[in-house]
UniProtKB/TrEMBL annotation:
<feature type="domain" description="Obg">
    <location>
        <begin position="46"/>
        <end position="341"/>
    </location>
</feature>
<protein>
    <recommendedName>
        <fullName>GTP-binding protein OBGM, mitochondrial</fullName>
    </recommendedName>
</protein>
<dbReference type="GO" id="GO:0000287">
    <property type="term" value="F:magnesium ion binding"/>
</dbReference>
<dbReference type="GO" id="GO:0042254">
    <property type="term" value="P:ribosome biogenesis"/>
</dbReference>
<dbReference type="InterPro" id="IPR036726">
    <property type="entry name" value="GTP1_OBG_dom_sf"/>
</dbReference>
<dbReference type="GO" id="GO:0005525">
    <property type="term" value="F:GTP binding"/>
</dbReference>
<dbReference type="Pfam" id="PF01018">
    <property type="entry name" value="GTP1_OBG"/>
</dbReference>
<dbReference type="InterPro" id="IPR045086">
    <property type="entry name" value="OBG_GTPase"/>
</dbReference>
<keyword id="KW-0547">Nucleotide-binding</keyword>
<dbReference type="GO" id="GO:0005739">
    <property type="term" value="C:mitochondrion"/>
</dbReference>
<dbReference type="InterPro" id="IPR031167">
    <property type="entry name" value="G_OBG"/>
</dbReference>
<dbReference type="InterPro" id="IPR006073">
    <property type="entry name" value="GTP-bd"/>
</dbReference>
<dbReference type="InterPro" id="IPR006169">
    <property type="entry name" value="GTP1_OBG_dom"/>
</dbReference>
<dbReference type="Pfam" id="PF01926">
    <property type="entry name" value="MMR_HSR1"/>
</dbReference>
<dbReference type="InterPro" id="IPR014100">
    <property type="entry name" value="GTP-bd_Obg/CgtA"/>
</dbReference>
<dbReference type="GO" id="GO:0003924">
    <property type="term" value="F:GTPase activity"/>
</dbReference>
<comment type="similarity">
    <text>Belongs to the TRAFAC class OBG-HflX-like GTPase superfamily. OBG GTPase family.</text>
</comment>
Length: 529
């Protein structure tokens, strides 16, 4: 009884002793949480990483086991050493759960296979490493074997209506993961497509892109073997002035050399070797090495100490040791690039009202501000019709010289590549009341020029013009002049803030996306003084 009282008393004392501390801790932790909450910027404010350099290495194969079971009847021993396990693969999987590459690591290695053991036990298979990437990821190959591309569709050559739905061609059936091949951490979902890698020889020939010509050496970059010829020679690594002696040196130089912007120092690479355009698609980018042979498989070869019964004098100990060692996993250096997939791309100068318009047309809640470059990443919204749904992407504002990396640069122009329809959002009031902006027809000319500078033919897709801010004083007259100066496409007067003209615009977008209409905007259809 006395003891119990003593315990309670001492407990009370301890509570009394630290009452303030306890309260302090509580209040401190809650304020910390609120501080942290405020510190966490909304997703739109965070810098989007839509280009990423990745070095992937498949797991090495496990070593085979040298083991002999001796018995009264087999004094020299019967081989019973198992084979080493296969190394794990590095797999890219497209997922809607990730928006950009900010969660990725530059180096990804799959696990090594387990060593074989006696009693003919095969080593365990190394676990695969699955890297989740956003839907719309394009893969460019810098060094290594081509990842498992089966169909190569360069975005620049894509028909705008023909957004690739799968990466496999009719000629090449997809090899789905079998239990043996894709064990480890890979979940066996029936919808997931797992496509095996191909060797250089099997790879289809690549076309040149208009940005980098094949075989062209850039001042900063790496020249790798010509893929078209399938030859592996002529490899040199150039990093600025210095020539790097190995790919490792090049990789460490490039990976440690600061920001993602430096990726713009274009390296010689194979563009768009594969694209992940649907959620759940998988591609093996680095394969695990095969396990080494165990003594069971090595019967007939010389083994050390003359333990084997059949001695073949031609096979040396070194050969056997090398056969027993697991093979290294393949290694690859890639550049991943994100290209949003949307039916409609809203293109316009900063502050034209693209985000406001997206919010007016859909349930999206993009950030709106009366300053340029409020939008730092493409926002997606969904327009729902009775029988139809259209995805709209609000692309960050473009300015003159964007293709030369001015403003937010050309980083976002690539997001336009995969849109079917372009909606040019113009600010009718940009040059009114002494504002320093451009009149809408000049905005239009500059926008088309930027798109074409970035990639020829980028503006050559069904388009319409949104003449925004019609509510502003004097905007009606500007709109009339715009209609006289721009021909060949529909022009919609809209007040995005008040949602005026939005239903008509939505109906027109539906027709363009559905293919009922296909007006295209040409540079020579714009009259400028
Ligand atoms: N008067 C008027 N103002 C508008 C209209 N639409 C947008 N604005 C204003 O224009 C400013 C810019 O709007 P945003 O939607 O952020 O423009 P944005 O094109 O997305 O801008 P960036 O993010 O820089 O590309 C905001 O202050 C909006 O309130 C409109 O129809 N009428």
């Amino acid at each position: 009884m006395f003891l119990r009282f003593g315990k309670i008393f001492s407990h009370l004392k301890s509570v009394e002793k630290y009452p303030r501390t306890t309260w302090y801790v509580q209040s401190c932790s809650s304020s910390d949480i609120s501080k942290e909450r405020t510190k966490l910027a909304p997703i739109q404010e965070r810098r989007m990483i839509d280009r990423f350099r990745l070095v992937a290495k498949g797991g090495d194969g496990g070593n085979g086991c040298e083991s002999f079971r001796r018995s009264r009847h087999a004094r020299r021993g019967v081989p019973d050493g198992g084979k080493g396990g296969r190394g794990g693969d590095v797999i890219l999987e497209s997922s809607r759960a990730v928006w950009d590459f900010s969660g990725l690591q530059h180096h990804v290695n799959a696990k090594r296979g387990g060593n074989g053991s006696s009693k003919n036990m095969i080593g365990s298979r190394g676990a695969d490493k699955i890297v989740q990437v956003p839907v719309g990821t394009a893969i460019h190959l810098v060094q290594g074997e081509l990842p498992s591309t089966v169909e190569i569709n360069l975005s620049s050559t894509l028909d705008p209506w023909d957004i690739p739905t799968s990466m496999h061609s009719e000629h090449e059936p997809i090899q789905h993961c079998s239990n043996n091949d894709c064990a480890g951490s890979v979940s066996e979902e029936p919808t997931n497509q797992c496509i095996q890698s191909k060797t250089n020889e099997q790879a289809p020939k690549l076309k040149n892109t208009n940005r980098i010509k094949q075989g062209q050496t850039k001042p900063y970059g790496v020249t790798i073997s010509k893929y078209n010829s399938g030859l592996e020679e002529e490899v040199s690594f150039v990093d600025g002035e210095n020539e790097c002696s190995s790919i490792e040196e090049f990789k460490t130089e490039t990976l440690t050399s600061g920001s993602e912007d430096e990726l713009d120092e274009e390296v010689e690479m194979q563009y768009d070797v594969a694209e992940l355009t649907e959620p759940g698609q998988r591609i093996i980018i680095a394969q695990g090495g095969e396990g080494g042979l165990g003594s069971v498989a090595l019967v007939g070869t010389t083994v050390s100490m003359g333990k084997n019964m059949n001695i073949d004098s031609e096979t040396s100990d070194d050969d056997v040791t090398s056969q027993r060692a697991g093979l290294p996993g393949s290694e690859i250096l890639l550049v991943l690039e994100l290209k949003s997939i949307a039916d409609v791309g809203l293109v316009g100068m900063p502050n034209a009202g693209k985000s406001t318009l997206l919010g007016a047309m859909s349930r999206a809640k993009p950030r709106v501000g009366d300053y340029a470059f409020t939008t730092l990443r493409p926002n997606l919204g969904n327009l729902t019709y009775d029988d139809f749904s259209v995805t709209v992407a609000d692309i960050p504002g473009l300015i003159t010289g964007a293709h030369e990396n001015r403003g937010l640069g050309h980083a976002f122009l690539r997001h336009i590549e995969r849109t079917k329809v372009l909606a040019y959002v113009l600010d009718l009031a940009a040059a009114l009341d002494g504002k320093k902006g451009l009149p809408p027809w000049k905005q239009l000319r500059d926008l088309i020029t930027e798109l074409e500078f970035y990639s020829e033919g980028l503006s050559n897709r069904p388009s319409l013009v949104v003449a925004n801010k019609i509510d502003e004083a004097g905007a009606e007259d500007v709109f009339k002049e715009l209609k006289q100066r721009v021909h060949g496409v529909q022009i919609f007067p809209v007040c995005a803030v008040l949602q005026e003209g939005v239903p008509e615009l939505k109906a027109a977008l539906k027709k363009l996306v559905g293919g009922e209409e296909s007006h295209k905007l040409k540079l020579d259809a714009i009259v400028i003084d």
